[in-house]
Amino acid sequence: MIRKCSNLLIIFIASLMLTSCWDYGDIDKKSMTISIGIEQIGDKVQFSGELAKLTPSKEGTEKAQTAQIYHTVSYGKNFEDARIHNDVINPFPVFLGVTRVVVFGTNYAKKGIEPYLNRIGSIYDYRKNLLSVVSREKPKALLNIKVEKDISVGFLIENMINSLANSGKTLYPNIGELLSNIALGKVGYVIPYVGIEHDHIAYLGFAVMKDSKLVGMIDLVDTDGVLYLLAEKPRLVEAIPDPEKEENIYSFRTVIKKRKIKTNYIDKKVEINIDLDLYAALQYQYHVAPLSDKKIKKLEERISEKVKEDIGSIIKRAQKEFQCDIFQFARYFRAQHPNIYKKIKWEEAFKDAAVNVTVQTKIINKNLEDPNAKKKY
Amino acid sequence: MKRKNKLFVEKIKTFSEGKFGVSVRKLTILNEEAFILYIQELTDGKILSDSIIKPILQNGKDTMLTIDKIFSSVIYIDDISMDDDENKIEDYILKGKSIIILSNSEKYIIANTLKIEKRAVSAPQVETTLRGPRDSFTENMDTNLSLIRYRIKDPSLRMDNFVIGRRTKTNVAVVYIEDIANKKHVDEVKKRLDEIDIDGVLESGYIQKFILNNTFDLFPQAGIVEQSDTACQNILEGKLCIIVEGSNLALVVPKTFIEFLDTGDDHYENLYLAIFSKMLRFSALGIALTLSALYVAVVSFHSDILPPQYILAIATSRVTVPFNAFLEVIAMEFITEVLREASIRLPQQVGAAISIVGAIVIGQAAVAAGLISPLMVIIASLSMMCSFVAADYTIMNPIRILKFMMIFITGIFGIFGFTLGFTFIIINLCSQTSFGIPYFAPIAPFNFQDLKNYIFSDVNLERKRPKFLNTIDKTRK
Amino acid sequence: MNESLTNRQIAFIIFGVLIGYGVMELPKNVAENAGTGGWLSLLIATAITIIFAYMITYLSYVYKNKTIYEYSERLTGKFITHIFMIIYIFYYFLGFTMITRVSCETIKLTILLKTPIWVLSLLFSFVIYYAVIKRLRVIARVCEIYGIFIIIAALLIHTSLFTQGKLINLRPFFVLEDLPLYFKSTLNMIFPFLGIEILTIIPFAKKNHKKVFKYITLMIVCISFFYIMIVESCISVMGVDEIVHYNDALYATIRRVDIPAFQVIRRLDGIFLIAWIMAIFCTITIWCYGAIVLLSKLFKKIHFNLLAFIVVFMGYIVSQMPTTYDQVKKVLDYMSYYGLVVMGIIPTILFFITKVKKYDKKMQ
């Protein structure tokens, strides 16, 4: 009896399940969004999207083609509204699993990007490790540029920032990191700043965000200090003039051997001690000149000074101009003085914090060159 | 005339009528008549005339012949015996013996003149290897037993005979080494063989079905073996080999899941190659079972677990395909299975043709027509190829069927269904036993030593027989 | 029926029952209750759990081939045993249903957004029923295989999470002033260890000699390290301030990282989901088996498979009763306190009766 019933039940359930594949949706029947631009236009939010256009391969060629791109723009009072307007113009449901980059327009960034970051953080569709950048131009214009270097603008920006970050020349803050900075509170952060230069999309420096609002820019030339403090493995190039002969320039590649950030709380004042140990490798000299040990010492000092100045000036700028802790020193302070951290207001304390930077440099090699070689004749 | 003789004569009369296909040869010798009863088709005519008829006639010319004298000093045949039960005559004749009856004697002689059409020992067809002897089992049982006997010259090698099948009277031998094999297994196999009651046994597959636990079990619990060296290796390990008359595939019991993926090559070749090929076979088994299902899961449910470039590549390759991924996979797997089935059934001469047709139709045309995505072709052919890696092909049959189950359940529930479907298979594997041995040993229940021996497959390192077999003699060295 | 297990299998049953739904929100709970010093609370909780585990193991060890039903009857008499049994059965049953439900809710909210809950539960129930009617040995074997798989997957995932995380997020490791807080939060940290009471229904065989204590203690320590690894790797990626907002903290962390070096599996979701579903499957199956096996001791006349069917079917119905996710969470919260009774108090009582009446000497 029970056996028969269970058989019936199995048949019933099997047929039920077969008739309804609830979440089934083929990947080629989805609108794959590669990059998203967000901008404030008047009182409306503008979504501009860059989507993959899947085209069948031409007859005769059995090779799958690389994807092509089409663009969409939609407006709305808020994200939901804009999203609906975005959905109604797309042939298939929007798929965000391939999204590479989120581009914030300057206007929107000034208003605060936190709502959109929270949206990405909580909605399942988005990957949380996508890159976000602030664009000098309107995102719509940026995304509409025709790129020849890569599949699309999204891929281009992502690959560009990624390869720069891998060689230690910029930061690659993904949405997740930004969200945990926001959750930490009391600190600011920097995100890459891009724009169109001479008809090319270019990385311009950092956008400084305080309370997730855009408060300023750090130019590409000034980013060294930030990178020495924040980048995982900065590999920067320093051009140091000869201490004796100004026209000769030594090009060094520096690598951080040790970075130590120690905080203190003395006399109700925060003290931040940054200890950097650098390794420098001489790449080449503009004009080959002999290098004595004394000179090397001097060069080492010069590099240290230069780096110290870079770091010092950018921290000063953060304290005075941006008035926020974009380097997340708060984490270190909390780790080292958790109880004091609870009591003080970090935003205020940071502004008046005393910052001591010490840099030690060691020149470890000369790129297999021997500038001291003796000449026979 | 004595009472027995009357019965004999009656028998001879009935046989002479020709209904049974029994030939009766009547010889007249000095004092009496002799009858030779045999079946022409089963009897070697040359032996019959040279070793039986000729000596009887020559001796009978001038001496008195009694049945005992014929038995002891006239006939040249080696396999010979005497009996007096008239009811057994029929049995003997059917088994291919020749019966000699003297008209005034109470006994008769049974002489073995059996002639079997047999093929010579040839290279293995099902269980092919690169390295390893080429003498595989044939349909002839004596040949098979001799192949084992000449490899294992151990006095305690046992070959227990059974006759199974009410009508076919097939000989079945259980081969094992008495002081190694677990007594429980031997008794259990013998018990199960004794219990078989069927009209006929044509292939070892029949026996396999009878001695297994449950008709509805998915995976085979007895291995098939064609190569004589593999059979001997199993016997030495403490297993039992069942050889069935008329079948060139012997059975090996008990057998666990992972042993199906073991080949003779592994034991003869280098240690690293053995490890490598074991891993290869395991991953191939996994691919055969899961690859298509994973494709469905990725394409239709959780595309974002792949990196963007891959997703774009898959999506682009699928653009022209009118079916959804689920149907595409089912269709493609179905086609490859049909191809496989066809290539087995087709005569060898056209076999090459089908592979060309298959390759062109599936590989080229379907993709060119935009019916199937190129990626799908790769997946289907890969999972097909992977299903050929096991030395004992029987393990792959359930995998091929379960593959479809996995595709279905993944098509409904995505990776959740995939995992639960996989779990279902694992539960089934874990719950099976082969003669009391957990089918998934030595992985679960885990035994490091056994697993190590299995993976290394090296005679030098293998000091002990598998623990799960619980053999009497536990050490090999 | 011979249901004896090897030591290793017993250890892996514990692994299977402990590592389950709990790991999903473990980082959140730890971060919420004890901040970055949570590892200490976890260690203290481990020590307490080992004490309980020792008592339960001791009971099973003394009463060979017996489950709690038999030795409790011997120690406390029929009436009290029946009360105990009802407590246990209700506990296992509730655990089985609620974990099924909450897992299905999580699956629905994360990967299968449109599939109805009842279908997910149904599929789960089917496979669980199939596993349960195969009895303890098979469940133990499945746990053994899956345990290894889960450990390998977890090591892969969490070591790669550590490479993505920042060490500074983990600090301060220890704040002296917070010591009372760590002890207070220990109570919360014991909940992830609920489940070792399953040892009461595993009959030990003769071959499980003294070594079984070593195995079980080692396994609990391993699980504790496993938990610490999960918590610390998640906090190192997310930061202690953010992780508290996620009920699915572990999955949220995994979705956050992307490891380019891994190429095809650079996004770790796939591996994680498979391992996690395997883990909850082990958990639910064992809880369900616990309920059924104790019921079958009470109703000896009913066939085990029929009983299993009734329990799974009833469990399926009950799991559909709560209407919202929060209700389920609430039930699970209450269940944690209930679990303390089942894991701590009852075994302790039985343990002391055994010690006082010196049954352990008599049995040997």
TrEMBL record, chain A:
Protein's organism: Marinisporobacter balticus
Family that this chain belongs to: Belongs to the GerABKC lipoprotein family.
Residue ranges that the Swiss-Prot or TrEMBL entry lists as coiled coil: none
All copies of domain Spore germination GerAC-like C-terminal, residue ranges: 205-365
Protein name: Spore germination protein KC
Keyword Metal-binding assigned: no
An individual GO BP term: spore germination
Sorted UniProt keywords: Germination, Lipoprotein, Membrane, Palmitate, Signal
TrEMBL record, chain B:
Record lineage: Bacteria, Bacillati, Bacillota, Clostridia, Peptostreptococcales
Any single Gene Ontology cellular-component annotation: membrane
Gene Ontology biological process: spore germination
Family: Belongs to the GerABKA family.
Sequence intervals crossing the membrane: 279-298, 350-369, 375-395, 407-427
Pfam families xrefs: GerA
Signal peptide annotation: none
Keywords, sorted A to Z: Membrane, Transmembrane, Transmembrane helix
PANTHER family, alphabetized: LEUCINE ZIPPER PROTEIN 4, SPORE GERMINATION PROTEIN
Name of protein: Spore germination protein KA
UniProtKB/TrEMBL annotation, chain C:
Residues passing through the membrane, by range: 7-24, 36-59, 79-99, 111-133, 145-165, 185-205, 212-230, 271-295, 302-322, 334-353
Domain of life: Bacteria
Swiss-Prot/TrEMBL keywords: Germination, Membrane, Transmembrane, Transmembrane helix, Transport
Coarse class of the protein's main subcellular location: membrane
Biological process terms in GO annotation: spore germination
Record localization: Membrane
Annotated GO CC locations: membrane
Annotated membrane topology: Multi-pass membrane protein
Family stated for the protein in its record: Belongs to the amino acid-polyamine-organocation (APC) superfamily. Spore germination protein (SGP) (TC 2.A.3.9) family.
UniProt name for this protein: Spore germination protein
Upper taxonomic lineage: Bacteria, Bacillati, Bacillota, Clostridia, Peptostreptococcales
